[in-house]
Amino acid sequence: MNSNFAGAGLALASCLYGAAAYGQVAGVGQAQVVIDPDASAAGINPTGRPIVLTAPVMDGTAYLGDATLTLDPNGQASFSAVRLIALLEPRIAAPLTAKLRARLSERGRLDRADLQGVGIGIRYDPQALQIMLDIAASSRASRSVQLGDDSRRGPVTYTAPAGLSAYLNIRGSLDWVQQGADEGLAAPVTFLDGAVRAGGVVLEGEANWQVGAVGPDFQRRGTRLVYDDRHSLVRWTAGDLQTLSRGFQSAPEIAGLSVSRFYSLLDPQTIIRPRGSRSFQLERRSTVEVRVNDQLVRRLELDPGTFDLRDFPFTQGANDVRLTITDDAGRTQSFDFDIFLDQSQLAAGLSEFGLYAGTRAPLGRRGPIYSDDLAFSGFYRRGLNDRLTLGANAQADGNGWMGGVETVVATPIGSFGGFASASHVNGVGSGWASILTFQRTISRASDRADALSFSLETRSRNFAPIGTGLPSNPYSYIAGVSYNSAISDAVYAGLDARYSKGRDAEPDVGSIRATGGWRISPDLSFTGDLSWERDGRGNRIAAFLSLTLRLDRASSLRGDYDSRSNRTRLTYQTYHGTGTGAYNFSADIERSDLGAGANANAIYYTNRAELGLSHFGTFERDLGGSTGQRTSLRFGTALAVADGSFSVGRPIQDAFAIVRAHPSLRDADILVDATGKTSAANTGALGTAVQPSLSSYSERNLQVTAPDAPLGANLGEGSFRLLPPYRGGYRLTVGSDYMVSVVGRLLGANGEPIALVAGSAIEEAHPEREPVPLFTNSTGRFGATGLAPGRWRITLTDADKTRFDLVIPKGAEATIAVGELRPGAR
Organism's domain of life (predicted)? Predict the structure, then answer.
């Protein structure tokens, strides 16, 4: 229920306080749950007669459903025991449900003692007019929490995207050179990208525009049609393709057709790699943060109970998984465990692929240059089981071909991966290449782990992917090994070595590097490395040292020293907020044997645009004189439209939503995804706002609020549940016409009041909407909330199913009195 209706609902309930109990509503004679009065129940029913109300049943803050409640003059409350068991069944263990049913069959009723016997407390809250349940953690049914694979949770209703939407991002840069080559104002450059989505098909493109530049003013970088088959998880593309590669493949510029499946693009909430699983129990309602490798991947609000935590988004190599649980009393505890997986693994039965075919289309000065040279590139990968993933790849054009295989094998000692490829280039000859990798995590008793990795890459003299004129493979093989260790919570260290065997006159190259870090205090940390290198210029030793001081939660100061060019740098950076009003600033100054320089960069995020200003200056080594100065002004904005609504906002990354206020809000400012004093966007004077940061196929709850909305205005649920399509847009309206409360009196055909009867009101224009419940008191008075202007049909639950016609005039707001109503003619 909207919070603005809560007060009206209490007032309407209070006018029914004098209602006497009646069998049809209260369920008299049925098996009841009896809640004996406690101290808080004193005086809640001073009428001397039973009162019948509809009360929500709450499990903590979770709404389970409604129950028809009878309040006796002595403060005792009762309602249907069958209804209670139906609400409890999904939330408590099955044996406890069976025990309650047996107890009900034996005694014909349930009371507090019966519920306490299965770990359930129950009380009636007279202030909130709610039935409150307190279910022990041990009594709750075990539930599974899916991380990242929400599509398997069952049917979910999402707000539908716009049938037709489009956006255009406009980013620009203007440089002013005060000193150096090309002094003066440079020709401004504008970067354009946008998309139109209609009927599930997306037309997207990118271009550059620079008036006054040498050569063409306009360059089209690419245009394509995209269609996503969500059932088969396949993306079809036609036009200027954005080719992706695997292994030793190149990514040729091709215009034509492609078909691909990348889970990260089409179903990012599905975990494609083998899954981890852990179980834990909560005694109290808690917030659970899941971090993988110190990165927050999900924050959950969970009721007490036993949970199986599944589907972690694992990353390559060692996976330090930590659960941080904070209960509603503020107590915190953590659980840690490590899992080793390789990022290129696929779970059993899953496959990824990309196939691209057409003609070569290299980018020219005005846009892609379409040739007659046919080209193909593609790969296919499949998880045969959770330990073995195999794949193959190939590409060809008029000048040659290349093909290869790949494998990833997870073993008890670590993960092995490898690629092997062969190629042929016309006029050059054939060649081959391979790479073998090994990764292992070594767990230690201190709950920390070390990581070991090894790689060996070999290439023949004439190996080359397509698009390569003359192959260049100066090294016959390249070998590398690394070992990293977390010595303590504050200290880490690592050692790596690399050796490349030169071919012909190319000298051998080798290096050994030691790295380390020390968190001296919560606000001060040190990192550094010491390396030995050998190449054609001889041997040398180099060091890099860095000290970072955290000034506050948003700001830091860092000093670096690099012996390679005797370079020192001091950097300051600060980040403040997200969304509208946020800003970032950084500045640094450095000096080396090559000279000195200073740089400052600032970005400010407004409601409608991003603004950036930077300055870069170079100086003589002793800072005695300036050698170059350049200032750059940058901006970015987006024009967006969705089903006829237009707005302006910050640049759109993928999908977006246009939010506007319903006329009933009287131009109140709508805040989108507000956090504290800031928000992602607000409607402002334009009357519409753009949320520019929606990710396709990733579930999102978009929050809206209107602090200055008129009293009694209906904001709906206060959020929209979205699953955005690729480049899709939404047209979201905050508020509705359903904000009217009515009071009146129902009379029978004989003119007598219809007393103590329940009923519902249904809008004739929208019979599919949820009926609005209502009741009459002993004088026939009734009240109802959440109605809109228009014609309504009231139907009572009496024996005759008496009906009434109700007309709410246009423009009606707040609470209106409709007087006396008599049964309708129909």
Answer: Bacteria
